[in-house]
Amino acid sequence: MDKTQDKLTRRNFLRTTTRGVCAAGLGALALTAARGKGVSMRRMVWQIDPTKCTACGNCATHCVLTESAVKCAHDFSKCGRCNFCFGYYKSGSSGAKSHAGVEFQLCPTHAFVRKHVVEDSYEYTIDIDKCTGCGICVKGCKEGNGSLFLQVDQDRCMNCNECTIATACPAQAFVRRPADDPYWLQQRPEAKS
Amino acid sequence: MRFLGACILVLLSTTVGASGKEAFKYPPPDLGPDYVAPHTSMPEITHEIPPIVDVAILVIALTLASYVALKKRSRTGTWLLCVASLAYFGFYRQGCVCPIGAIQSVAEAIFNPAAAISLAVIVFFILPLMFTLFFGRTFCAAVCPLGAMQEVVLIRPLRLPKWLTCALGLLPCVYLALAVLFAATGSAYVICRYDPFIALFRLNGPAGMLILGASFLVISMFVGRPYCRFLCPYGLLLGWASKLSWKRVTITPDECIKCRLCENSCPYGAITTPNADTLPDDRKIGAITLVCMLVVAPLAIAASAWIMVRTAPSMAKMHPTVRLAERIVREDAREVSDTTDASQAFRESGRPTKELAAEAAEIRDNVTQGSGWAGAFIGLVIALRLISLATRRTREDYQADRASCVACGRCYEFCPVNPRNRAPQDGGDG
């Protein structure tokens, strides 16, 4: 053993030095990664930019969850409370509107609840548990005020490092947001003022 | 929260009402003072574990793994911790974010400062590497859920021929280079896309991912840790860190008596046998081989860089913007008559085609440049591997190979030398 002892020491010295250099290098790497504007103390979560979303329908089919984490949401401040809602009725079913049954509803899972408010005004709410995130209603509402939009339900989202819907999104509408401010509606400039 | 939501809604309605009533095709009607609009659904995250807790658990797991593997020298302990990690990081936390995937997030954050990244992800990337620098690959042994998954299903390990493990062992560096390239250019997170077990952890996922996971699981029954050894890009980094580690796994707690009992105990082929007694090859031939390898090294780097740069145009297609720009060019040239969702979305957005083309051109440039570096990196790793094959280092006894040992502790149980539970020696000759 004595014979190799010197050699061992030399090699160990080199190893220790290199280890120190590597540890410092890793630290530098971490600092470089942490220098950017996008770094947050919070977890980052996925969200859809409704201004880019085209309601193509991929959200319903491309999530890793069987029941997609993307759900339809309703911005009531924009809703025209239409009697003949573009998001509620199939187009062309206008003749039968007054007594419309499920056969005239656009939503494939009948997740909409239509409630009369006053005169010709109706309120539309969405049963989140029924909604599949297919975006058919959102597409319909684009003909109207565009008050319906798709959003990632943060309580369902698995927060994958690479979102499979984001990779399938034709409009590149998926963005990462800090977990304490995950919803688009809260973030709009009007809301902040 | 409800109050806040109501305030926001009121603010929204007033500002919108004041600024642009005509902006709406169907102006929101006046529903009277008694009407209260429902809240827009914004479900809060109820299952969130704060990042600090995640990091704390990772530190505890790494410390425990290092303690059990190196100090206690306990295979049972490592196994139990392994199962616990599989249950927590795998099936409970369901895999994201893991240090392997964090490579990409960190790479993207380094090359694109605007990329959104959580500090916890950077910590997840750095911590296991730091621990490995000091204690060897104890992260692989009992913390990584992917490693744990393969560890627990291994029933009958087959001994792979050396040339095969050597050749397959080069795959991780290719995978790492490509993963960093795609992440740095913002194209894709390939490691996550082809994660073998995430779909199994979630018991859910696209068919492709489930099939991938199942086939990896079947292979793992007969080949020790196929993902860790032949694909995992993080394992490659950990292997390098482990070469420098302060403490390491020693098969025997004391002096090796060369009883050969441990020889076949490692399912991962990480035990190196003594070669002091075997006759060395002719020195002259060895020297010539080494010189040849040293000459080949720069050629290998250049060749690999050239190949990567040549394939860069097709690799750039991983980026959705490049794909879209190419599609738009083809549509404008009437090469295709139909449209895609993406091209439609682009045309509806009213963005000028020139702007898109410029953006795509920039991404293509980045990919070309990056693939040159990635190619050089792959070439360098291959060259170093060749050089190390051409050199001979005298080994006196049975040792765990620094880079490939994942500290699972199987060999401990085969060593007849007592006393057990002795502290590991300082890293000796590797």
Written overview of the protein:
- The complex is a heterodimer of chains A (193) and B (430).
- Chain A is an alpha+beta fold.
- In chain A, 30% of the residues lie in helices and 17% in strands.
- Chain A has a two-stranded antiparallel sheet with strand order 2-7. In chain A, strands 3-6 form a two-stranded antiparallel sheet.
- Chain A is elongated.
- Chain A starts with a helix and ends with a helix.
- Residues 1-6 and 188-193 of chain A have low confidence and may be disordered.
- With 430 residues, chain B is mainly α.
- Chain B folds into two domains: 51-278 and 396-414, no CATH class; 283-390, no CATH class.
- Chain B is built from 18 helices and three strands.
- A two-stranded antiparallel sheet of chain B has the order 2-3.
- Chain B is globular, with a radius of gyration of 27 Å.
- Mean pLDDT of chain B is 87; it is low at 1-22.
- Chains A and B meet through α1, β1, β3, β5 and β7 of A and α1, α4, β1, α5 and α11 of B.
- β1 (39-40) of chain A pairs parallel with β1 of chain B.
Main features:
heterodimer; A: 193 residues; alpha+beta; 2 domains; two-stranded antiparallel sheet; 30% helix; elongated; disordered C terminus; B: 430 residues; mainly alpha; 3 strands; globular; disordered N terminus
Q: Give helix % range of chain B.
A: 55-70%
User: Quaternary status of these chains?
Assistant: heterodimer
Number of helices of chain B: 18
Distance between the termini of chain B: 60 Å
Placed side by side, the strands forming the largest sheet of chain A appear as: 2-7
Please write the string of helix (H) and strand (E) elements of chain A.
HEEHEEEHEHEHH
- Greatest interface (CB-CB under 8 A), with counts per chain: A-B, 86 and 89 residues
Poorly predicted segments of chain A: 1-6, 188-193
Strand count, sense and barrel status of the largest sheet of chain A are:
2 strands, antiparallel
Instruction: Please give the number of β-strands of chain B.
Output: 3
Q: What gyration radius of chain B follows from the Cα positions, in whole Å?
A: 27 Å
Rg of chain A (C-alpha, Å): 26 Å
Low-confidence stretches of chain B: 1-22
Beta-strand share of residues of chain B: under 5%
Could you tell me the mean pLDDT of chain B? 87
Class computed from helices, strands and strand pairing of chain B:
mainly alpha
